[in-house]
Amino acid sequence: SSSSSCSFLFFFLVLFVLVLVPLTMSFMPDSGDSSITSSEEISWVAWFCSLRGNEYFCEVDEAYIQDKFNLTGLSDMVPHYRHALDMILDFEHEDELPEDQIQDVEHSAEVLYGLVHARFILTNSGLQKMLDKFLAGDFGSCPRVLCEGQATVPIGLSDVPGEATVKLFCPRCNDIFVPKLSRHQHTDGVYFGTTFPHMLFAVHPEFRPAPKINSKFEPRIYGFKLHKTAYKRMQERRAEEREIENKIAAVRAASKKYH
If DSSP codes are grouped into helix, strand and coil, which group holds residue 25? Predict the structure, then answer.
């Protein structure tokens, strides 16, 4: 009987370890799940800036968006303005939007945020956020060889929506370039404006790179530099040769006609 009791006890222990313990653990609250759930509840602004293709944008402070003075004139530029603004600020409307308008409001929210963003990055807070992204190389580097990978900043060619897509400004060569990645080539340049890069380095001149000596490429032939007027003289000489060739051809054609 003692051996049967020991066998029963052993069987019970095995059953407890293999079945009852895992079953008990499954009903315990999981701290990891709660952390994941809380991390997924991000604001609309954070979500928008995290989207693929929106890496050039910084997160506009909510207090800035809530200040009506900063939004002056935008209500006339953006359809569904009130709904779009509430979407950006994560406000829920009492009356739900019809399904056919949800997509339009989402697009208006993106446009409105871009226009607000262009104003925000000219403030001290906005300049600092964009400076951090510039120093981190978030905007890419200059494709020009002699700039040696100089970090760039986004710039718009117009302050009117829809006229030009965003470009990249190199503070070393003072030239602009098309973004390397195609996902950045469709963003409206008005969301960054024509003033931002110059304002950034005016407020933070210590981060503007000094121009390098001999940073301009010089063409050479057999090691000799070409004179500034070399191409012009070659063109003039070639034009004179063509004029002589045309005259000779005209004389030959006239002689054949009379013969």
Answer: helix
Give residue-wise pLDDT tens across range 28-87: 444 444 443 444 678 999 999 999 999 999 999 999 999 999 999 999 999 999 999 999
* β-strand pairing of 220-221 with 224-225: antiparallel
- Concatenated DSSP letters of 82-141: HHHHHHHTTPPPSSPPPHHHHHHHHHHHHHHHHHHHHHHTTSHHHHHHHHHHHHTTTT-B
Q: Distance of alpha carbon 22 from its chain centroid, rounded?
A: 48
Dist CA 116 CA 193 (whole Å): 11
Q: Classify residue 126 as exposed, middle or buried by CB count within 10 Å of its CB (0-12, 13-18, 19+).
A: buried
Residue with tokens 């829920």: 92
Instruction: Find all residues with CB under 8 Å of 64, minimum gap 6, and list them.
Output: 70, 116, 120, 123, 125
pLDDT, the chain, mean: 85
